[in-house]
Amino acid sequence: MASVPLTLFASSWTSGASNGTYLVTSGGSDGSAATYSVYPYGVDWNWYHKANELAFFNSLKMKMSVILGVTHMVVGICLSALNYIFFKDFIGFWSEWLPRLIFMLATFGYMCIIIIVKWSTNYECQNNTDPFSLSCPNPDKQPPALIQTMIKMFLSPGNVPPDLALYEGQAFVQGFLICIAVLTIPVMLFAKPVVVHMRSKNKRRRRENGNYRSIAGSASDVDSDHELHVMLSSRAQNSMQSELVSHYDDLENGSHSHDAKVAAVRSQYSSSVPERAEQCGDSDGDDHDDGMGEALIHQGIHTIEFVLGAVSNTASYLRLWALSLAHAQLAKVFWSKMIIEYGVESGGALMLVCGYAVWAFATFGVLLCMDLLECFLHALRLHWVEFQNKFYHGDGLKFQPFRLPTDHEDLDE
What we know:
Elements: E1 13-15, E2 22-24, H1 53-86, H2 90-120, H3 146-155, H4 170-211, H5 225-235, H6 240-253, H7 258-280, H8 286-316, H9 319-344, H10 349-387
Antiparallel strand pairs: 1-2
Helix pairs in contact: 1-2, 1-8, 1-9, 2-4, 2-8, 4-8, 6-7, 9-10
């Protein structure tokens, strides 16, 4: 497919007699009367094995890899919304998830949009004498360099040079998007720690006023080991969490029933809460200030990681462009050297058979084995790092693998 393109549809281009470049079929020799038609599916097969083939496919595959990468990451960000909803973390939903989605769409989502806009615009340009340069009939309407457009968008917001213009009102749109993207950064950084700190201060104030209420409920509130661990991990704010979980594990290793384990842990938890609250309810509030500082540091790390990761992760998807380009060039070299040059053009049947054998083994060993394994590893890496870091966090309940009971264990436990 990469070395011998399929001619499923008629090409929209024909060879120019004078310079070997390609003009539209219905146009004149100079392309002045050209009427363009869109190839029904994929890339016009006449682009292959031409002088400007590599320049054309480089641009096309690079843009396609960026669009696929940004779409992939946006899907990952949308999946993270399910985590906030499942754990009822509505503060994080509005102060983390929504700003992250807006930041990604306002920057790299916009880059994907201008790529499609450029593809959809007819600039009526032709390759005349030089296959590596374009001649456009309208000097004021030339295809802009999108990399320069994005650089100017960040360095000179609200200012679009004429040679980088894509549509009317572009300066206002880009300036607005940059403002929105910049405003989401302090929201991601400060909103959640401040809200959590204010709630903690209100709870401490109510506790100091004598309105403290134990959070340990009745035995009917917890009916499974999983819910008990979730209660401990979400409500214990200091070293009491690890102590209780350790105490629960000790009980679990014994012969106690489930109700006995729950009652024992609840008893220790209920008796420990007032003592811990009295220790934490100091008038100076140093522990709470330290907690606020730790929360800001933690949130700052995640914010910087996301903002910088949006750039590096998008660039990482360019490996798709590199892999596709390398695969196509290897297939082209194997075909042109082994089959065409050493086989068909040599004129000998023996050379053709030997060339075909070398081409078949090289195609199987390099393209179908080594190259596909390389593509699989790169795709796996993109899923694990660039995609899953948008929603997956490896901090939850301790994994307990399934195991068969031994002879001395009770099967009913």
